[in-house]
């Protein structure tokens, strides 16, 4: 009888132990469910709050793209000539995602390290004495030049470049010395750029 009683007590203790463990597991499962719900709610909020953020190479960044034309008025203009390179300010901003282009200075400033693509198109006024040229400048160094010369008829020229930029690097267009550039309501002279990918 004593042995039976001892076995019964051991079985009761084992049952009580497993019952307590089951309760703990049930509480933990409830806590895990609550945490999952909270995490999902936080992720949804974060996604809504930062819906314009992209993830690349494990890093978050805002998209960057701009496009602007030289002239905002309603008649033809010709700028130049100047004896030295002169920064062109593209005031008619069509797109400025990420706000990296400054329409007051004409300067694009890289907000993140990465590869950027730039394109520019220039209007040639048609001048027997002066060609048209615009060079893209990175910080203070000239890179590629768009150039053309039409003695009497209107024309265009263009160029493009991909640059690796560090945060804070500047990019802008300058009118080449002793050249003229043309624009009007059809926006022949434009400057555009966008971030291809971060590095």
TrEMBL record:
Keywords: Secreted, Signal. Pfam families: C1q. Residues 59-199 form the C1q domain. Gene3D superfamilies: 2.60.120.40. It is found in: Secreted. InterPro entries: C1q_dom, Cerebellin_Synaptic_Org, Tumour_necrosis_fac-like_dom. It comes from the Eukaryota. GO terms for cellular component: extracellular region. PANTHER family: CEREBELLIN 13-RELATED, CEREBELLIN-RELATED. This is C1q domain-containing protein. It comes from Lates calcarifer (Barramundi).
